[in-house]
Amino acid sequence: MMSLIKRQNMEQLKLNNMSRALIALVLLFGISHLSHSANIKPLPAEIDVRIALPEASICLESKSLSLEVYITNISSKEMTISKEWTLKMSSFDVVCDQESKNTRIATLSIRGDPFPGGGVSHSWFSLSPGASNRYVTSLGLSNREFFTGPSVYRLMVRCIFYHRQPNGEIREIAIDSNNSLFELTSCPPQLGK
User: How far apart are CA 102 and CA 22, in angstroms?
Assistant: First the structure.
């Protein structure tokens, strides 16, 4: 009986030592990460991206989702931006699955660029401080494993911009939009069927 207690104590001691080593590694990584990120200076906000959905509720059989993208210069200086900016990523989350009345934890990220352009040569436009440009596009809803039934979804997009600075240097800027909710609903029955 005494040897069993000794063995259990030894195993507990090994677990405690492993836990301490793991904690030490986490702390070491955290401290080195903090000191590294203290050297990184974030860029001041210059552009804001907002998305709006013309329709908050769409039919489940819809193949796409209409999307308006608003690009606003929130800096105090004029910005020169490439017209060939890209919609780099769309991220969808399920907020509420209406069939099961529960939260279904699922995320879908789609990478792509529904906007034309993105070549090597750029054409530019200027945005005065406070000015906005509006773009209309659509996102595909073809992934039927994710868009399974009547549910509420959250959408966020990441845009990549090319900004020409006064010295002629071109800088790439990645910006995440706001979140926007939409609902996929069962389609009403069509007349004449």
Answer: 36
